[in-house]
Recover the amino acids of this structure.
């Protein structure tokens, strides 16, 4: 069975939890059953073994279950598809290549799929993503459900009460974010958070063994990825607005020319352009709202909050989105 090896492109989450000693409590917190470290075999996919793709943490519990878990700071509606790809690779490595042609049934560990959400956008404690959501209401012969669990450090989160390791990770991330918001550099915030966790017994052994620079490099890599996602979201919004403006200009010119022929070219163009631009911007914003709801799995109200739609205009945009 493969083993995982740390490198600077690993996330902090991946480095912490690809550890047979920490995974039994994760398993117990998720499924309610006990396991010992010797029951755990890592099944994490490395990029070098599966070109271009790697998952965060995968592990077998005896031959009973295989758990595939991902850490996410942004909502990704494609996680069921990604999990399907990961599972196919895990099963491919689990069974002998020739055994699939035998008549006897091959026993397989039961797959379970989880995403640990740790982003800054307010989300529920838990929700489910399904592969069939991508089928556009057509009925297929396969389903895969991914349970998304919010691990942000908030009171009464059951998963954090059941797993001290997840609680510790959540506390560390929250401490870093707090320090950055208060004006610290990321590097200084990481140092303060490491010290805080050591003093307060949050993954104390792990943070004592790690150099602060190594922790910073792993966290900085993830933050760079998060910023890239933010840039893509901003680009999507700009594209929506641009398309809306183009449609508005086209519509405005058409209306303006039509009105201009009957009411005077100058007045018609002016009115048409003004009306078209306004309608184009509205359509662009409505398109961006719809894309956020579909791709990020958020409600219309939450999407309007993110795009800062004024309260007085929300009913109008709700009608545009619903079509």
């Amino acid at each position: 069975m493969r083993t995982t090896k740390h490198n600077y492109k690993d996330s902090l989450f991946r480095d912490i939890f690809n550890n047979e000693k920490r995974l039994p409590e994760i398993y117990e917190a998720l499924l309610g059953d006990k396991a010992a470290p010797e029951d755990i075999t890592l099944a994490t996919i490395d990029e070098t073994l599966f070109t271009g793709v790697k998952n965060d943490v995968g592990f077998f519990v005896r031959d009973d279950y295989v758990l595939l878990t991902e850490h996410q700071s942004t909502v990704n509606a494609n996680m069921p598809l990604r999990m399907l790809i990961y599972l196919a690779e895990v099963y491919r490595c689990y069974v002998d290549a020739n055994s699939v042609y035998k008549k006897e049934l091959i026993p397989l560990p039961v797959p379970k799929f989880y995403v640990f959400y740790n982003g800054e956008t307010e989300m529920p404690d838990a929700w489910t993503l399904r592969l069939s959501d991508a089928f556009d209401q057509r009925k297929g012969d396969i389903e895969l459900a991914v349970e998304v669990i919010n691990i942000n450090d908030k009171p009464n989160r059951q998963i954090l009460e059941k797993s001290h390791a997840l609680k510790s990770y959540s506390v560390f991330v929250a401490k870093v974010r707090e320090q950055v918001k208060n004006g610290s550099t990321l590097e200084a915030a990481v140092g303060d958070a490491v010290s805080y966790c050591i003093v307060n017994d949050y993954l104390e052994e792990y943070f004592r063994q790690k150099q602060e620079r190594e922790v910073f490099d792993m966290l900085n890599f993830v933050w760079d990825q998060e910023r890239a996602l933010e840039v893509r979201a901003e680009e999507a919004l700009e594209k929506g607005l641009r398309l809306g403006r183009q449609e508005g200009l086209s519509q405005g010119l058409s209306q303006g020319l039509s009105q201009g022929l009957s009411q005077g070219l100058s007045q018609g163009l002016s009115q048409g352009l003004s009306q078209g631009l306004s309608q184009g911007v509205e359509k662009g914003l409505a398109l961006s709202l719809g894309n956020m709801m579909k791709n990020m799995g958020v409600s219309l109200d939450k999407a309007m909050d993110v795009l800062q739609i004024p309260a007085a205009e929300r009913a109008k945009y709700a009608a545009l989105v619903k079509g």
Notes: The beta strands are 40-42, 57-61, 65-72, 110-117, 126-130, 145-150. The mean pLDDT is 81. The first strand starts at residue 40 and ends at 42. The two ends are 52 Å apart (CA to CA).
